[in-house]
Amino acid sequence: MSAIAVAPATHTTSAGHLPKWAPWALLAICFLIAGTIFAFANSGGDPADFNIALTLVVGMILYMGLIFVVSTVAESRRHATDRLMTALVSAAFTVALLPLISLLYTVLINGLARFDGEFFSFSMRNITGEGGGAIHAVWGTLLITLGATIISVPIGLMTSIYLVEYGQGKKLARGITFLVDVMTGIPSIVAGLFIYSVFALIMGPGTRIGIMGSLALSVLMIPVVVRGSEELLRIVPNELREAAYALGVPKWLTIIKVVMPTAIAGIVTSIMLAIARVIGETAPLLLTVGIVQGMNLNMFSGQMSTLPVFSYMQAKYPGLPADAFIDRAWAAALTLILIVMVLNLAGRLIAKVFAPKLSGR
Questions:
Q1: Which pairs count as long-range contacts for 91-98, CB under 8 Å and 24+ apart, including other chains?
Q2: Closest CA to 223 of 256, 188, 252, 182
Q3: How does pLDDT run across 133-168, given as a tens digit for each residue?
Q4: Taking CA atoms, which of 60, 221, 239, 334 is between 20 and 30 Å from 261?
Q5: Helices 260-278 and 210-234 sit at what angle, rounded to 10 degrees?
Q6: Interatomic CA distance for residues 182 and 148, integer angstroms
Q7: Angle 109-114-117 (CA atoms, 0-180°, nearest 5)?
Q8: Nearest to 334 by CA among 101, 108, 106
Q9: Which CATH class is domain 135-354?
Q10: 131-150 b/e (C-beta count within 10 Å ≥ 16 → b)
């Protein structure tokens, strides 16, 4: 039989494509145009007043129109419609990120004014105007959050282990699940009032010490840890448990050696989310911990200062000059964001180190 050469089919849809870099170049041009417009509108003003959110929105609108026109001319109407829909989805994602981007930009611009060595070396003792720092508030936040984590994580993990491994179908487990769901929606000030009332009955009215703040934050942290850990323990395959049982491993050791290491990455993430949930709380700490102008590292004696309360008090009750107080408030907010970022990075590193290693990777 003679071989018949068949010419490869030419797909018309492969012709007339835009280069891969073209959409990104058009997007950069649109953002540059939008940024230039709003930069001229804000010329001579404070850089913090630059409207980055509206810049992104206008840039995405310009991009959608430009990519549709360019794609229609260079490619086809079908390709243009596809690129327009892709741009719409990307624009929706950008809009969802706008609050976060705008918040980070505003805090960064305003917080850098006092983000210096003095801010992290001195407290506010004997400071009535400019100068001073928030080292006492930084230490207070770290200690109180650490205390809340030490209280919440064991309770939350053991509760989630009971719900998943021991309490399935039991009335007690259903009751605990209901109470955890209710606690998840408790306003933070209610947690602060609860702890304040308990210590007022035990130690007298007006008592404010660091451990009270840790207990108030733990009331908010525990349900977050329980719900997150519970869901992660449930997705651990039952085959792993059954394999351990078949080898004669008791249930408690299976949980420690098999179930927990398998879900450790997600559990650490849920703990980090719980910490991020409470580290910025102001109302419960204002009620239970109070505020001082100097350093106090004893959580069982005297009031302490925390970054959220410090930032609130500096912004709410500014003295003279007022700009010095506002700058310290913004710097404290920026410090709090950086602490949360560092804790999340540390949590991811811990999860990566202790997560089970998969063969072939």
A1: 91/60, 91/61, 91/64, 94/56, 94/57, 94/60, 95/57, 98/53, 98/56, 98/57
A2: 182
A3: 888 889 999 999 999 999 999 999 999 999 988 888
A4: 221
A5: 140
A6: 20
A7: 130
A8: 108
A9: mainly alpha
A10: ebbbbbbbbbbbbbbebbbe
Question: What are the residue boundaries of the structural domains of the chain, listed by start?
Answer: 20-114, 135-354
The per-residue pLDDT for 102 is 81
pLDDT for residue 9 is more than 60: no
8-state DSSP, 11: P
The residue with tokens 């018949």 is 4
Distance, in Å, from the CA atom of 304 to the CA atom of 137, rounded to the nearest integer, reads 8
Instruction: Write down the residue that tokens 């609108």 correspond to.
Output: 61
Residue 294 CB burial class (10 angstroms; 0-12, 13-18, ≥19): exposed
Residue 7 pLDDT grade (very low, low, confident, very high; cuts 50, 70, 90): very low
Q: What is the pLDDT of residues 86-135, one digit of tens each?
A: 888 988 888 888 888 888 888 888 888 888 888 888 888 877 778 788 88
> What pLDDT score was predicted for residue 361?
46
Angstrom distance (rounded) from CA 71 to CA 81:
9
Residues in the chain: 361
Query: In the chain, helix, strand, coil percent, each to 5?
Result: 70, 0, 30
